[in-house]
## 1
Amino acid sequence: MVTAPILSVDEARHLISLCEAGRLYAVADWIEAGKSLVVPPSLKPTPLRIATTRRFHSLVELLLRHESRADVKTATMMYAIKRDSLDIAHLAIEYGADPRVVDCFRVLMAARSVRAATDIIELGVDVTSDSPFTHAFTISPSKKILGIARQCIKNRPECSDSIREQLNVALRWYCAQGKERWITPLLSAGADPAGEGPTLTELGRKREAYGWNAYFHAVRSGKLAVLKLLQPSKLAYDQLSELLYYASWRVNFRMIEYLVNLGASVNRNSGGEFSALVSCMSFLDHDEYRDEASALAQDHGMPMPWRSPQSRLAVRLLVERGAKLEANRRLFPQLQRILVGLPAEISHEILHLLIGFGACPDDLGCALLKTPALRRRDPRALEPLEQLLSLPLAQRQRRIRAFLRRQSQHTDGDS
């Protein structure tokens, strides 16, 4: 291809002045006369840059039509995208600019409409490298970006899996942040809450496998409203039970109650020291926020606790729903440490629940009652528990339920 000659400085300045004034017909006459469009490198900006900056669409098209240098067309496209002029960028691509060098993230951020972006992206823009949809949506979330994602999934099937995974990353990030606003729109756009992988902050890190999905991050955030938006009722029984186990790590009573009511198993890993019941018991001596403690206690008819209302309520719920402990050598000393570290009235309450509902085997309950540190506190307070342990399970349950009803009535009277 023959390269056009470079104009003299005076001719180049005259051409630039015509472009600055938007004189389309004068520039057309210039081209008809066979004059070059190449200005000296010392003169900036170029005619195409000026026409793009001022959004003279017809002038840009005229200059592109008679521009022979592919690199200039590509530079015009990139500059137009930077200036949020996607219509001019699209025009540059039509006249030979290379769309493969376009930064998809910039297109998404600059797009004023779904169609303006998809018209460019569908010409071959790389939508898979550097997770452009994830970054664009987490920086500036909008329905427009989700609309572009839906159109690209539909029109570029070879990239659909990558785009869906980018939406999954964004969904996991919003769930981890506990932000409800964009959960449902992301799901509607094609994000899969069961998809496992990194969140936004984990992108690019070297790790063999990410086993956490959006459900797990929602549980971890402690926001029940976020978890409900993901509709965990659609999950299989085993998956629900696993979520319940995760929820017990944070001892969020509302979330534990919700998952149990959905049908999650309260006895996942019950044979070891990593069951939901043991996890909740491990937090019995942790301080909680007093205002939240008061509200939970009053809602469930418990005397105002000064420690761990969520843990106590969770333990009570789990044993009422059939949670079981199994005696093993590693679990027994752990339970002893938990009970000894609690105030006497709370440790007695927990023992009442465990023994009354048959949550622990009789031999484990008997061994716990013989713990020296518990007996030194108040041996007489343990006598009702020993009597309870000697009764059949059905009779124990009737007694403990009556005890809990009296406790609830006592709380109502005090309030």
## 2
Amino acid sequence: MGAKKKKTDKKKTDNEKNSILQEKNIVQIIGAVCGILPILYWIVDKGYNIGYQNKCEKFYHLPAKYFQPVEWDLPHNLLYLLGVAVLLLMCIYPYRFNKFCEKNGQQTKGNLFYIYSVGICLGLEIGILNVYNLQTIMDEIYKVAKIFSRINEWIIENGNVIIGIIMACSVVTLIGSVLMGKIKYIKNQKIRKIIKIVYAWALGISILIMFYGVYARLNFSISDKTEYEVVKVQGKEYFVITEVNDHELIAEYVIDKNGVYNIITDYYKFIDKNSGDSYQYIQLKSSPKVQFSVEETENTSW
């Protein structure tokens, strides 16, 4: 009896030691990650800045040294990506908890109510994110072809219906992932088939909007920019291209017969910041084009 007690005590001590070692390992891993993160951020930040400058140089045909990304642009994108990743990981919880309840015979009404409530809440959160992602997608695809512009107009006209569909798809996807294992108990094959088709469509729509929306959000190009400041200097209007220290780099522009703005960047100049006669913030219907000289743009008007 005494030998058995000693064996139990030894096993308990070993478990405590292993637990302490695991805790130390976790602390060491967290410490190592915290030490590496600033270096990784510095590397990503430098790479992002260089990439942004190169894109601006190619688009505007101006020296890269004049361009710097907005200070909060990279942190905002990283936080957005982290938030999406955390939300997607949280979506695994209802499925895992349901499996745990099944395995341990704890599928009570209370637990099922909890699982479905969490699934619906997470589904609504995913739906809100996908509504935001759809807006990002719409801002991108209307430039590709006229048909997409018409689709955008239809989506705007039926905004409430589209939002409802997106939210419903997200909730069905979350709840469906929990219930898919129970479909086999439905005897009616037609109902079973309908449920599978609805789930497949909801899952496909949710995944498509999610990943393409995130891609479009993070892959924003300077050529997609449609908001500009226009400054008037001595009665003449210029686009404010960028700010360099305490100066503004400005360039002339013309409007072609189709109403597209063309920025002339082979001649540009600097003025003191906020020294223009007047400033106007404009939203263009489409991204501007960049021309090397006025002669390159036919049928233009000042």
